[in-house]
Hints:
Blueprint: E1 2-4, H1 7-14, E2 21-24, H2 28-39, E3 45-48, H3 53-56, E4 65-68, H4 73-79, H5 82-87, E5 90-91, E6 94-98, E7 104-109, H6 110-114, E8 121-124, H7 125-132, E9 137-141, E10 143-149, E11 162-168, E12 176-182, E13 184-187, E14 204-206, E15 209-220, E16 227-232, E17 237-243, E18 246-254, H8 262-270, H9 278-289, E19 295-299, E20 301-303, E21 307-308, E22 311-313, E23 319-320, H10 328-343, H11 351-381, H12 388-397, H13 400-403, H14 405-412
Parallel strand pairs: 1-9, 2-3, 2-13, 3-9, 6-16, 13-22
Antiparallel strand pairs: 4-8, 5-8, 6-7, 10-11, 11-12, 14-20, 15-18, 15-19, 16-17, 17-18, 20-23, 21-22
Helix pairs in contact: 2-7, 2-10, 8-9, 10-11
Pfam family, one: FAD_binding_3
Organism: Brevibacterium picturae
InterPro entries: FAD-bd, FAD-dep_Monooxygenase_BioMet, FAD/NAD-bd_sf
Amino acid sequence: MITNVPFDEQFEAAKTEDLRILVVGAGIAGVAVAQLLRRQGRHPVLIERSRDSETMTDDDHAGYMLALMPMVDPVFDDLGVREQYQENSVAIDRYAFHAHTGETLREDRLGSLLARYGQYRGIARGELLAVLSTETCPVAFGSSLVSLAALDPAADAGPRPARVEVSTGVHSEDHYLHGAEFDLVIIADGLNSHSRRLVPGGSAESSVDTAWGGWVAWAPADADTDQVDELWGEGFFLGAYPVKDRIGIFLGAPDSREPLGARRFVTEVRSQLTTVSPRIDAALTAVAEAEDPYFWALRDFRSRQWVTGNTVLLGDAAAGFLPTAGIGAGMSMESARMLAASLEATSPERLPEALTRFEAAQRPRAEQAQSTSRELARFMFYLPRAVAGLRDLIFKLVSVKTALAPIIDLLKHPARPDEVRSTDI
């Protein structure tokens, strides 16, 4: 359970530990790594800029519906919450691709494709955070990192803590600035990280701006709880993704179409369709009737480096994904598990070695998955509208197995925590 525990109270429990850890950002990566570290007996301090747990788990914003590959299963097992995950998600077995005019072109069995590795499951972001925090999860809400004086990795001065300033009460007039020292600062506050700019080397190596975005909404659940539907039209995209008791809807459009508004854009989309299934109809209705639906800008981010002295970027702060391969949240969780494993029984003296092992093992995996997302985005977003029929033909001939081959390769060769654990354990 996520509980609001002030920064100074959390720090009191952490300050006498051999490895004092600050985690910035209580999203998927931040909560996962904090809970895994707590399972090891550590007391990381977890801060979050959001006002409270309700706003932190708000399902009306970007990333609210997630499809998780089986690479996440070991995280749930390590936390002892596999049963809760199963109860709060749905198994996805079928993938239906629709032509630009609406008719179904092909259907693939994702469940059969991934069965040897585990289940592909749909879950709402808020539900996922609740599952990860089944055991007590202290979070200092309304708190942000405002300064960071980290270890200079070029200086041969031995282990030295990072000096930080954390502002609390950021949503009220009662601000307070806390100064503290930590042996490790984990930056996990998302794709648009405010903290990353404080880290030398935290700038982007590359980023992709698709010049597309999309409105997100919820539709009522239907009988096809195991099926994902995607429809690529001429200048639009529509996706329907089941989670427990509802369906997450994403209606994509070029950024230039956002001022038109969701309701008018839905009317425009309907005029292009000659075949409208009940689910497609419900999806469009949900977007049109949503009150001020959120428009999610489709951008990604790749950091030049993850580790700098005694700071490390994690999750979207290190490699923020486009949603085109459905792998971003899963990779954040896998990275959190690998980082926690590298820190198991690590002392400040051994911290540089531990972080180096982590980045060497996990960064290539994350970038392989991110590159797949980028390749799919090029095909999905950058084809001229006039060749929508050609894209239909290609999708009809190319299976999901072929499109996701690099992701399946990651599942075939899973991350191995033993590779990053200290040999002293």
